[in-house]
Design goal:
Layout (H helix, E strand, L loop, with lengths): L7 E4 L9 H15 L4 E4 L13 H11 L23 H13 L3 E4 L3 H6 L24 H5 L9 E4 L6 E5 L3 E5 L1 H4 L3 E4 L7 H11 L4 E5 L3 H14 L5 E5 L2 E2 L15 H6 L4 H12 L27 E2 L5
Length: 321
């Protein structure tokens, strides 16, 4: 296959907790989407969320994914042309991108805390991601240092992206045409929480572009973030990948799978003697590509993979599967 046209995907776990069945399903779908078209897969560890990062979680995620039968062509333990593959080791790239946005006047320092932003809401919001920022610090400071001088020791200003009015749209590979007016729904958003840093929004754009990723398949809880990421791609003059957002696995309460729904960690299931084939079979059954109780290897699903047949509704996990 022509290397220029080859599909490049990525698996990007965050070492903030153990891999569970819901994560595994999304990673399996991402892997199948690329491997079914003879594409390349990059493994990247997204470890910028320092307070939540857990020791050994990164290696555990790699071990669990390998055990499930997923592989990749580049990554932390393999190396490759796009090294390093751990985000905390790529800070220089994020700083360059942030400086480019600063030079273009597209970011500004902000001293508003999360609580300040939440208290300014005119109505209750569902989750931090939905909180609207009214632009309190837009045009308020001449420099980052001026903003920092107003904060107590130990606190630093954030860099916010200046969002222009108007809707941004894209064609999702599963959800179809999607549009959002980011300025009206969320306002200016945070890119970095210290002078030379980067948060998830900026880092993921920089990394996917630098690594030549052409497809990002992930859970649809991240669909709202895509509009903001597209604004960053545009501001940096980068070509975005195709986005594919698939339904999550949720508990009976309709909330994203978590500890409250029982122990669904891959490591715990392994320790209990559950086979990888049984887990892959369950994930395939949830997708509609296997009979209940069928045991399969990941590679056996390559010929069954079909996003068009995937149920657009979330998978509801119960204790009996």
């Amino acid at each position: 296959m022509n290397e220029v046209c080859r599909v490049v995907g990525r698996l990007a776990p965050s070492p903030t907790g153990a891999l569970h069945l819901g994560n595994a399903r999304s990673f399996l779908l991402a892997w199948l989407s690329v491997r079914s078209r003879d594409g390349r897969i990059i493994m990247r560890m997204e470890d910028l969320d320092h307070p939540k990062v857990k020791p050994q979680a990164a290696q555990q995620a790699l071990d669990d994914l390998h055990w499930l039968g997923l592989d990749w062509d580049e990554g932390p333990e393999l190396g490759g042309d796009n090294a390093p593959y751990v985000q905390t080791q790529r800070a220089g790239l994020y700083r360059e991108a942030l400086e480019q946005l600063q030079s273009a006047g597209l970011v500004y320092p902000c001293i508003c805390s999360r609580r300040d932003v939440e208290n300014a809401q005119s109505a209750p919001q569902e989750g931090e991601d939905a909180v609207y920022y009214a632009g309190t610090c837009r045009g308020r400071f001449d420099s980052y240092a001026a903003a920092r001088d107003l904060l107590p020791e130990g606190r630093l200003p954030a860099w916010r992206f200046r969002v222009a009015e108007g809707s941004i749209c894209f064609d999702d590979g599963f959800c179809g045409r999607c549009c959002e007016d980011v300025a009206g729904s969320r306002g200016d958003f945070v890119l970095a929480r210290h002078e030379y840093g980067a948060g998830y929004m900026l880092a993921v754009v920089v990394d996917d572009a630098a690594m030549g990723v052409t497809e990002v398949l992930r859970g649809d809880d991240l669909l709202p973030a895509t509009f903001r990421q597209l604004l960053i791609y545009r501001a940096l003059g980068l070509m975005p990948p195709e986005f594919v957002h698939v339904p999550l696995v949720v508990g009976p309460d309709g909330r994203r799978l978590a500890k409250r729904h029982g122990d669904t960690r891959i490591a715990a299931l392994r320790a209990a003697g559950v086979s990888a084939e049984r887990i892959i079979g369950l994930l395939a059954y949830w997708c509609g590509w296997a009979e209940q109780g069928e045991e399969l290897r990941a590679e056996q699903l390559l010929t069954r993979f079909d996003l068009k047949s995937l149920n657009p509704k979330p998978v509801v996990f119960t204790s009996n599967g």
